[in-house]
Structure to design on (496 residues):
């Protein structure tokens, strides 16, 4: 193997899906050679809560990747949980450097490490530092200097101001436990808010002010950028899984069927469904229960109610950041649940901000990797992007070359203890019939076929008009309806 060639293996542990991606790095060239998502288990609010369930799913995903690529995965980079995370401020300072001493990147890195290590945690047994982001620097005479400008300046003193991200220590320990159980240590764990943003947002957006909403399955987070620096981060324990649970509860159907109905016919703003709003989903039952009729308009009302609650909470966090009035680039929404039809229009109507869907930028070659360009892959691309900056990371080795190094005398056995997972084969779901044998089914009936339905759900072209100001009543409504979050100082998670 060429000594400059290595692999980066990234694992995104999500509430609704686990994604494993592999990148081959040859010098400065980075190529995504593998990306696959599988259903998640044992993860809640982006944190591991059942290690055995996660181990079973993840070991199977690792085995499939190794067999397809012909490599032996020896380690991986993993994303940290996004909830609960608290943001605090800290400073770090270097003095008596000499007036003619040039400020280097090593000085900046030292200040960042010191800011992370010196922050006084309230409870070191429960809390851990997830990371830090530089806000500004000073050389003793000049203040509010950004990182790229202070490097190369001279001064006897250099001081940095940082935002420090504090999360649950036990959540990190559980990630290590899972990775060790499958024989693949987590060589690095990244707080993905910043890396995901750099994989999705443009430089102009981060410079002029933008809020990135990562709408995941178990939690939704917001990262606010201004001046190319992340200024604020917050997250709430609600996401796409809550929408599925609402559909399941209201319609009294299985979780699997509710998820499929949401993906096929889910949309915001029932008043904008046009002809689709008049359609009826016929859910057939093979049991003694009667068949069900689910109007698409009613389905949209269920989805809209939950999404409005989530967006109102995110807008509250944006208001708390004190950057709400200077987000010139508006809102960018990414993550698996961001594909809900009419979502961008819905957020625009509530907030007045211009909104776009954030797909991963074409940072790397990704030929042949299905799904890597979807919004659900944003975190995975961000992990790989973050890992490329560490030249020491190498997560896999080619099995053939490893065998050749052993003179071919030893058969390569993967030390990963792959847990056998009993899994029923997934059957292809025809358009007119959503469900599994023995469960309720969605019959075509009066519905159009999916290929015909999809254009009816698509958004209308927005007219070129200035974004209207936020409605005066949304803040008052938010303060009256915002739910109470649980105390993040404990290890307990709220019930879904």
């Amino acid at each position: 193997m060429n000594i400059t060639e290595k692999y980066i293996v990234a694992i995104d542990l999500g509430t609704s899906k686990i994604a494993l991606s592999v990148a081959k790095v040859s010098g400065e060239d980075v190529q995504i050679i593998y990306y696959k998502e599988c259903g998640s288990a044992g993860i809640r609010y982006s944190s591991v809560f059942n290690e055995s369930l996660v181990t079973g799913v993840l070991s199977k995903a690792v085995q499939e990747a190794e067999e397809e690529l012909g490599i032996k995965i020896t380690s991986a980079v993993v994303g940290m949980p996004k909830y609960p995370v608290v943001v605090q401020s800290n400073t770090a300072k270097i003095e008596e450097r000499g007036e003619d001493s040039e400020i280097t990147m090593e000085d900046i890195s030292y200040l960042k490490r010191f800011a992370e290590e010196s922050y006084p945690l309230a409870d070191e047994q429960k809390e851990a530092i997830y990371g830090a982001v530089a806000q500004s620097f000073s050389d003793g005479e000049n203040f509010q200097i950004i990182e790229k400008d202070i490097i190369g300046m001279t001064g006897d003193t250099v001081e940095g101001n940082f935002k420090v991200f504090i999360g649950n220590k036990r959540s990190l320990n559980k990630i290590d436990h899972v990775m060790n159980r499958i024989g693949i240590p987590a060589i690095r764990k990244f707080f993905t808010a910043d890396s995901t943003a750099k994989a999705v947002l443009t430089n102009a957006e981060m410079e002029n002010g933008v809020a990135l909403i990562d709408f995941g399955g178990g939690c939704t987070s917001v990262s606010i950028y201004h001046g190319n620096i992340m200024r604020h981060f917050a997250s709430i324990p609600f996401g796409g899984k809550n929408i599925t649970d609402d559909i399941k509860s209201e319609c009294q159907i299985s979780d699997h069927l509710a998820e499929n109905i949401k993906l096929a016919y889910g949309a915001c703003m029932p008043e904008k469904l046009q002809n689709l709003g008049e359609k009826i989903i016929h859910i057939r039952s093979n049991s003694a229960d009667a068949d069900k009729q689910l109007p698409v308009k009613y389905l949209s009302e269920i989805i809209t109610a939950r999404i409005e609650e989530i967006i109102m909470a995110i807008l509250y966090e944006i208001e708390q950041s004190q950057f709400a009035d200077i987000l010139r680039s508006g809102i960018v929404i990414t993550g698996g649940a961001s594909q809900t039809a009419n979502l961008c229009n819905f957020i625009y109507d509530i907030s007045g901000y211009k909104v776009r869907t954030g797909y991963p930028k074409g940072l790397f070659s990704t030929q042949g990797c299905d799904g890597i360009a979807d919004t659900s892959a944003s975190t995975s691309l961000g992990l790989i992007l973050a890992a490329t900056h560490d030249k020491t990371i190498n997560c896999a080795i080619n099995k053939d070359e490893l065998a050749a190094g052993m003179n071919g005398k030893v058969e390569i056995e993967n030390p990963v203890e792959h847990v056998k997972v009993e899994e029923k084969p997934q059957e292809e779901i025809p358009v007119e019939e959503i469900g599994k044998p023995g469960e309720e089914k969605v019959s075509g009936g009066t519905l159009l076929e999916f290929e015909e339905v999809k254009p009816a759900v698509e958004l209308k072209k927005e007219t070129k008009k200035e974004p209207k100001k936020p409605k005066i009543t949304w803040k008052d409504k938010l303060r009256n309806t915002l739910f109470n979050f649980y105390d993040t100082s404990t290890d307990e998670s709220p019930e879904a």
User: Anything to note?
Assistant: The chain has a mean pLDDT of 84. The two ends are 48 Å apart (CA to CA). The CA atoms of residues 116 and 324 lie 27 Å apart.
